[in-house]
Design brief:
4 helices; Nucleotidyltransferase, domain 5; alpha/beta; single chain; about 160 residues; six-stranded mixed β-sheet
Amino acid sequence: MIIVHTDGSSRGNPGPGGWGTVIEQDDKVIELGGSEPHTTNNRMELTAAIKSLKFASDEKILIYTDSEYVMKGITEWIHNWQKKGWKTAGRKPVLNQDLWQELLKLTAGKEVEWKYVAGHAGVHLNERADVIATTFADLPAGRQVGKPVLYHGPRDKYK
């Protein structure tokens, strides 16, 4: 099973944003992160989950998120949004529909389990994902990074 911890950050919300993820796969740990010059925290939280699913192989995947928006969206709300033509219960367009649709596509046919973890509560890998996300959110304008791998190595050497 692949275990993933994700987080997103936005300075100003909207403003410069970053996403981070820590992936435990086989005997390795992989850190990924990226940024966008103008975005929201919710978009970065969704992006972290999407990037994790794109990177991870097609095995069972357990994703920890500290975003209630992502957790409830993917486990509770998304199917009603689809049935209602991507409208909320209040008949408004679903925000971040493009990312929700991509996330739904990436989870199709996979065994993905979602778990909520409280943010800033001392959960080591969630805290690390937060550091990655905020570091990328704080990059100077124009220093956006495409496909970084921050750490890729044996799990027993990961601190």
